[in-house]
Design a protein that fits this description.
- This protein is an alpha/beta fold and about 375 residues long.
- The protein has 2 domains: about 190 residues, Glycogen Phosphorylase B (Rossmann fold, 3-Layer(aba) Sandwich), CATH 3.40.50; about 150 residues, Rossmann fold, CATH 3.40.50.2000.
- It has 17 helices and 13 strands.
- The strands form 2 sheets. A 7-stranded parallel sheet has the order 3-2-1-4-5-6-7, sandwiched between helices. Strands 10-9-8-11-12-13 form a 6-stranded parallel sheet, sandwiched between helices.
- Helix 6 links the parallel strand 6 and strand 7.
- Helix 1 packs across helix 17 and helix 7 packs across helix 13.
- It starts with a strand and ends with a helix.
């Protein structure tokens, strides 16, 4: 490679930037690479500001597509149209997409049709639930990708079972752990729990947002009752998602939480503040994907209110357990009695995934360049 590789790093929302940041920094230091940030704007987020990017050590995006909200079809089509224009005007050598949002699928489709090699960061994750739009995005992106970076052995196995050649798969580990370690100093300095009058190691954190949990009154009511039972044993901090808050109010459940002295309802937190709460918690109750990983890394018991998970390694090796709402109280009691699930950090969840990813890209790019020589 005589000229530095022009590499597009695609991000659509805050979680994508969290995962892109460690890789951007490693690639930026490499003489063989010229990384460029592409923000699709799929999710409007008032916290997506210069201050947030500066917190991650990132510059302003090189390209901002400004697609905004809409249906799945509208978002996917909008990103495709906007990203294609960029690729035709200033063609990248590689496109790196992250995770499972609509922008990931859209940019992969554009790159594949323009014969731009694609890397999928967080490849191979499967919930085996095709009612989840994210699952469709994962499957199609993995079929299009030329290089697939997996976080754990189950990702490798899923891809191999789907017919992906082994030489396309590189297990690099979990890059979200790199993000946490990148921010750890700032996170530890915040002491958010202390500011809320809570004792480190003696409270729980709750997050809920999935339609399967919050869109039906009977289901959400069962969860609220379980959370009130939890609050009777351990203080609860609940950064509340706007969708969840609206449903709680609609179903007449919000007042039940507001009226409990051991429940703190908070606004959605920036990453550093939220992780300050998480890393000092006794246990976590969630339906999120990323929290299953972070709690396994930190050794914190996690109860996930879902029927399935695209991150099964957090259950087989980590501290995560899948539970139903009517099981929550019994699981909490077991954890508080010292009988909770013990886990360990999965292999390669060590804060060095970005370095392995960069080396993988360098190696595959060189091989591709060599194969193109007459």
């Amino acid at each position: 490679m005589t000229q530095p590789l022009k590499v597009h790093l695609i991000a659509a929302a805050r979680p994508n930037f969290m995962k892109v940041a460690p890789l951007y920094h490693v690639l930026r230091r490499a003489e063989w690479c010229a990384p460029l940030l592409v923000h699709t704007g799929q999710h409007y987020d008032h916290n997506m500001s210069g201050a947030f990017l500066a917190e991650l050590g990132l510059p302003a995006p090189d390209y901002h597509l400004g697609v905004g909200s809409g249906s799945h079809a509208e978002q996917t089509a909008g990103v495709m149209v906007a990203y294609e224009k960029i690729c035709l005007a200033e063609r990248p050598d590689w496109t790196i997409v992250v995770g499972d949002v609509n922008s990931t699928l859209a940019c992969s489709l554009v790159a594949a049709k323009l014969l731009i090699p694609i890397v999928h960061l967080e490849a191979g994750l499967r919930s085996n639930d095709r009612t989840m739009p994210e699952e469709i995005n994962r499957i199609v992106t993995d079929r299009l990708a030329d290089l697939l970076w997996t976080p754990s052995p189950d990702g490798d196995e899923n891809l191999l079972n789907e017919g992906v050649p082994a030489e396309k798969i590189d297990r690099i580990g979990n890059i979200m752990i790199d993000s946490f370690e990148l921010q750890r100093g700032q996170i530890e300095a915040l002491a958010v729990a202390e500011g809320l009058g809570l004792e480190a190691g003696n409270y729980s954190v709750v997050t809920l947002h999935r339609p399967s949990n919050v869109d039906r009154r009977d289901t959400l009511g069962t969860i609220v009752d379980a959370l009130l039972d939890l609050a009777g044993r351990l203080p609860v901090v609940f950064p509340i998602h706007p969708r969840t808050k609206a449903r709680l109010a609609e179903f007449g459940l919000l007042e039940k939480l507001l009226g409990h002295p051991a429940v703190t309802l908070a606004e959605p937190q920036p990453y550093n503040a939220f992780m300050s709460l998480v890393m000092n918690a006794r246990l976590i109750v969630t339906d999120s994907g990323g929290l299953q990983e972070e709690t396994s890394y930190l050794g914190i018991p996690c109860l996930t209110l879902r029927e399935n998970t695209e991150r099964p390694v957090t259950v087989t090796e980590g501290t995560n357990r899948l539970v139903k709402a009517n099981q929550l109280s019994a699981e909490v009691q077991a954890i508080l009695a010292g009988k909770g699930k013990a886990g360990r950090r999965p292999d390669l969840w060590d804060g060095h995934a970005a370095e392995r990813a960069a080396e993988s890209l360098r190696r595959h790019a060189m091989a591709r360049a060599a194969a193109a020589q007459p």
